[in-house]
Amino acid sequence: MTPERRNKLLTVLNQRQNNLTVLLENVFDPHNVSAVMRSCDAVGIQEMYILNTRIPPHKKWGFRSSSSANKWLTVHQFTDTASCMEALRSKYDKILTTHLEGNSVSLYDIDFTKSVALVFGNEHSGVSEEVRQVADGNFIIPQYGIIRSLNISVACAVSIYEASRQKKAAGHYERPSLPKDFRESLLNEWGFKDKDHLNEPL
């Protein structure tokens, strides 16, 4: 591994965020999934969740859309809603779904300096009632056009870039966020040898 490559990967790893994630529920189009992966990588999300209860688990992603972003992410796939939501709840303090309800909050009113999981649903039917029932609330992206709908990958990108903006302002990218053991496992996955990172501050 070249020194330039090594330094780039360490910089990326040190900016990965441990308290922000995305869950995609029954998103059928693999290109939508891979586009979301690319956005997650761009804002420093390391772990993302995929729940498929209506189709088999995804085996391939849209290569052109992801630009191999899945190689650098930790993707948790579930086929059972209860298990998926339990896993989310064990790690993130607040779970919010994209859904228009009377009590839905604006994306820009969410405090992303806290621990948050954002749920995006199926391209046609949205987030299921089962998931909404166990979430902490709903949010919407303010829109001012005639067509009040965004492609799921676009909606996700808009949302997590707002999260990134808040986290950057709060200094979250200035210090490592991932737990030491998780960081070590990622270093190994990304091709670091012991001699490459033995003396790196964790």
Q: In brief, what are we looking at here?
A:
With 202 residues, the protein is α/β, with parallel strands linked by helices.
Question: Which helices and strands, and how do they pair?
Answer:
Blueprint: H1 3-14, E1 20-25, H2 30-43, E2 47-51, H3 63-66, E3 74-78, H4 81-91, E4 94-98, E5 105-106, E6 116-120, H5 129-134, E7 137-140, H6 152-169, H7 180-189, H8 194-197
Characteristic key phrases:
202 residues, alpha/beta, Alpha/beta knot, 7-stranded parallel beta sheet, 8 helices, globular
Structure write-up:
It is globular and about 50 Å long. The mean pLDDT is 89. Helix 2 (30-43) runs parallel beside helix 6 (152-169). It has helices spanning 3-14, 30-43, 63-66, 81-91, 129-134, 152-169, 180-189, 194-197; strands spanning 20-25, 47-51, 74-78, 94-98, 105-106, 116-120, 137-140. A seven-stranded parallel sheet has the order 3-2-1-6-4-7-5, sandwiched between helices. It starts with a helix and ends in a 5-residue tail after the last helix. Strand 1, helix 2 and strand 2 (47-51) form a beta-alpha-beta unit. It has one domain (3-183): Alpha/beta knot (3-Layer(aba) Sandwich). The protein is of the alpha/beta class and 202 residues long.
What's the CATH class label?
A: Alpha Beta
Distance between the termini: 20 Å
Note the main sheet: 7 strands, parallel
Overall pLDDT: 89
Oligomeric state as shown:
single chain
How many domains in all?
1
Please tell me what the overall shape is. Answer: globular
Number of helices: 8
Poorly predicted parts? none
If classified by CATH, what would the architecture be?
Answer: 3-Layer(aba) Sandwich
Using only CA atoms, what is the Rg?
17 Å
Report strand %: 15-25%
Indicate the structural class.
Answer: alpha/beta
Looking at CATH, which topology would you report?
Answer: Alpha/beta knot
